[in-house]
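Handoff note, outgoing to incoming analyst
You'll be picking up this chain. Sequence as last confirmed:
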Amino acid sequence: MTPAADAAPAGRSVTGPSGGGGGPLAGVRIVELGGIGPGPFAGMILADLGADVVRVDRPAEHGSPSRHPILHRGRRSVTADLKDPRGVGLVGKLIDGADALIEGFRPGVTERLGLGPGPCLERNPRLVYGRMTGWGQDGPLAQAPGHDINYIAVAGALAQIGPADGDPVVPLNLFGDMGGGGLLLALGISAALYSARATGRGQVVDAAMTDGTAIQLALLQGLLRTGQWTEGRGSNLFDGAAPFYRTYRCADGLHMAVGCVERQFYAETLRVLGLTGDPLFARQHDRGAWPAMAAKLAEVFAGRTRDDWTARFDGTETCVTPVLDWTEAARHPHNAGRGTYRITPDGYPEPGTAPRFLGTPSPEPRPAVVTGSDTDAVLRQAGIGADEVAALRSAGVIG
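Most recent structure output, in case you need it:
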């Protein structure tokens, strides 16, 4: 991927206004215990929506640039040694004034540290305690290691992705880590915050990537139940088997995405391709004809470049679009016009905030800060004096 320095949409520069003071979650305070993947994604989403998120990292990382400049954006950063009771005490003071906490350790780790739900909710009964794991807090695999690929495999999603005559295809780490993990945790925390404000009582939110993957299968499992889906990979409407819902390689090796499911879009696609009246395409949903239809469409698309096809389909109602890489996506007129991507000072695309709130718009996200750079200010706000901060730093409890 190459930088996209020329693609910055107006008003969407990463060097714009600082976050804070806006968004639907303005005034919400969250403590995030440093982790990887889906937990930080949840923290990013909540910070994007205006929450004041303080991330707690290890003192050994103090002073280092963030390893995840997008996932860690919009937070303040402190460092504290959670293996030292004094570090645990510092985090406890932050929890006293927090609305929610995010942790992504294996079940039982925060309990052993003294930061489990019991003591945290005892000192702050309104606290929403968000837990992010792959397998969940209970069940036979709760203590087993794993990654996105394992969670979506056991949840039944991975087996459905890929060609009929090939192996399952890994869909990046979007299904488990992001959609079924961090995004689900952010939703759960938001719902629990609403409940806490109504009842005065916090609660634990147990977000598991296996559960989050499974719930994303609701539509397809409903189609299976009504006889409109089979469990065979690459044999259904939305898994690449349908010739009108798949990608095609063009003359330059790039691809077009075809999604003309509805009859009127299907007919218009055939017109643009010069296939109107071809008897092979007369019965769109004749599965027996799908392989031959796909072979013919592949032949037609291979005759022109992607950009040529893009120009031919532009302005038509066909549901046919180019397949873009990240740099191209940032430059695309629609994405640039909406500010879907921000462009960083070094010229790389970064997703903007989503969804959009017209009444309480989200602030422009702040860039990720140097790890631990807010330690003194955050501890001072928590009522910890300068002498105590100095002593803790001297003892290596904070960076």
